Fold this protein.
Amino acid sequence: MFTLEVSLRYSPFPISIQKKEYDDILRVFEQIKNAMRENADSVLIDLTCDKIKSKSIAVLSREIIAVQIYEKSAIAGGSKRPGFSLES
């Protein structure tokens, strides 16, 4: 299961969705990056979650300040640490 986390301007907590396939989460990641690059108009981005089918989020691209992908690992019951770190 892959998680996409979106950090919003003036919000202390990120929003996130989960997708089963890496290609699906990568497609959403690229869509968000492209919307963030365009400075002219803000785009409304609709996000849906594979894990919680009823979870749906709409975000204005101009409010997004960061986006990241990470994979939940079933081994050791934990997950990879999101963001960048020196530890593996």
